[in-house]
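Please, structure for the following, as tokens.
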Amino acid sequence: MIMTVGEDTTQRAVDSVARQSLPPHDIVLDYSPGSFHYKFNANVSRINTEFFVQVDSDMILDKTCFEDLASGFTNGVGVVYGQLRDPMEGRIVGVKMYRRTCFDTFRLQDHISPDSDFINQIARLGWTKVFVVKHTRGPREYWHTVADHQPHYTADYTYSKYLIMGMRDRYWKRIRSLKGRLQRLHRHSHPNALIAVAALVSGVFIEESRDLAGNQRRYAPPDVLVQALDTCRHTAIDHVRIGGMIKNDVGKVFEKFCRLGSELRQKNERCAFRETLKNLGTRQENLAWVGQVGLCRGFLSPHHSHRQLRNDSKMIIDNYSQNTKVL
């Protein structure tokens, strides 16, 4: 199953499916408009094979991808994941092979994370998920993968994608997971990585539960963010001293950096904002990632009242202290 809204990468995905060592019985190619969950469910109704793979139009599958995924199925397994090679983050999740009978009881819903929600639902019936990993040599980012993920990471696409990811992290109360993702974004140094960082941490302040994927909705990055991250790319400035601001208190770290971001915005010190964000990405302190959340919140919403600041801080603290498991 390949769902597309007409991306120019679609034919690459189709060709990679056609080259599989385990050939597909059929390719369901859907160009229709609509939300992800609606299109997915409509296409599932057209499938009558025991298993099927959902492929994004910006993926290029390795020749053995289907074969590798199929090897993960045993009794009780409902979905098998394969990892992707992504230029923004490195090794990420992933292409999925589903067992068709799992959809006899449940279908995807209008949900901020339709696929994660579905996997949680079938888990209650006893179905499990597994990840196919053929080798684990070296650091985790070099472990086995089954495909390339090659979207056009323009500023608009990057901001929209990562803003929605931040909304999902808020919904699932998994703000703690921001730390690892932010580290990967800084480590891989993609030209638009800082836009992804700012979008990701901005998304956690947006409360949303609907399916936003697949409907061509795009969130454009604020002009002030593009200017700060683009025009200051090659500007040398004095670093803002931040070492003493990163303490072992989530709320205080967030509030201090939120005030700093607001101050830099009001003084129009865009380049200082960019360099401080980059600097935080290299820090080893446990809560440096909270500093990134606060800095971006203050810079992009500089006119926070004291009440708004405390409410944001409370949301971060409450979310940080919880650990909702997403299957």
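The CA atoms of residues 3 and 98 lie 15 Å apart. The two ends are 22 Å apart (CA to CA).
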